[in-house]
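User: Before I run my own analysis I want an independent prediction to cross-check against. Here's the chain; please return only the C-alpha cells and, at the end, one sentence I can use as a sanity check.
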Amino acid sequence: MTAQNVRLGIIGLGTQGGTYTRFLAEGRVEGMTLGAICDIDPAKKEVAAAKHPDTPFHDDYIAMLESGDVDAVVTTVPHYLHPEMTITAIGKGIHTLTEKPAGVYIKQVEEMNAFAAAHPETTFAIMFNQRTNPVYTDLKALIDSGELGALRHTSWIITTWWRPQPYYDQSAWRATWGGEGGGVLVNQAPHQLDLWQWLCGTPKSVFAKLAFGFRRDIATEDEVNALVDFGNGATGHFLTSTNDLVGTDRLEILFDKGKVVVDGSKKVTITRLTQDERSLSDNLSVADVGRLFKGEMNTDDLYATEVKEYESVWGKQHIDVLTNFAAHINDGTELIADGAEGINGVRLASGMQLSAWTGREIDLVDYPTEEYLTELNKRIVDEGTFPTRS
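Assistant: C-alpha cells:
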C-alpha cells in the first residue's frame, strides 16, 4: 500500500477529542491529518469553527462516515456508544480507533469484535495508550523473557483517582448505570485493568467486594477490592477508589525467581534472585537461617536489586498510539493494541461488579454474559432515567 496521510475524523469534541484534534492540527502525528470533526452539541460547532475553520464539521457521525472526508475515526464518546459506532464505521470501510473501555457489557463487545473480525481489511484498534509507557513496555519485555520465572501473586493499589462531588454533579449521565455503565472501573481504572492482564495474564475468575455510592452521592462503584485467580496457584489483588485524596499507585508482581515493584508508574524496583525461591529455601542451613534472621547474612548470595526511574511526557503516549494506528493502516505495522483485546478489561470489570451484586466468585472463562446484562438492566430500571440495554 502506498503511504498516505490518513484523514482522521473525531467523533465527539470533548476533552479527549479536543486533545486529539489539537495534536493533529499541530502536525504531531506522523502519517495522519485532521479530516473532520463531529459533535451533536451545536456549541461545539462554534468551537470547531473558531479553532479549525478549514476542517469539515458534522452533527451526525454517519454523515461524516459517508462524506468522503475521513479514512478513519476515533470514538471519543460515552462508553455505551463505542461498540455501536465502531460497528457502523467498520461496516462503511472506515478504520476505527475506539476509546477505552471497549464497551460496558460483554454481549455488545462480543458483537463488535465478531463484526470487526469479519472485516479484516479494516483496521480496528483501541486507545490503550499506557501500553506505550516505557515503564510498562520494559516490564512487559522482562516478564516475557522468562528471566523472573512463573507468576506467584500480584497486587495493584491504584487509588490516585480522587474525584470530589462536583465532578459527578457536572453531568447527569456520570456515574450512572444507564448513562455510564459503572463508576471507577469503567471510567478511571480501565488502563490499569488492561495493563494488569497484559503483564500478568488473563485471570480465570474473580471475587470482589464493591462499595456503591460509598463516599459520593452516586449510584455506581467508588471503591473496589477484588481477588483474582490466574490459574496454576497464581493469585492477584486489585484495589481502586475515587475517595482517597492522597492516593497510591503501587504495583507488585512476585515471581519464582524475583519480584517487581512499580511506584507511581515512575519508579521500578526489580529484584532478581540468585536461584528460584524454593531452591534458596531448601538449600539454606540452620546456621544460615540464624544469620539471616539476625541480619548478618550477605544478601548478595540471595538476590540483587536494580532501581529504574522513568520520566513521563504528557500526551506522547496518545500520539504514539495514533501514529501506530496510521502506520498499521498504511503498511500493516503491528498494532500496539488490537481492538479485540478490549474485551478482557470489560470482562474483568463487569465480573467484579457481578461478583459484588451476587456475592459469589465469577468464572471469567465461561462468563455469565446474560446474567450480567440482566443485573445491569435491573439497576438501569431502578434509576428510571435511561433505556435498558440488549
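Sanity check: The mean pLDDT is 96.
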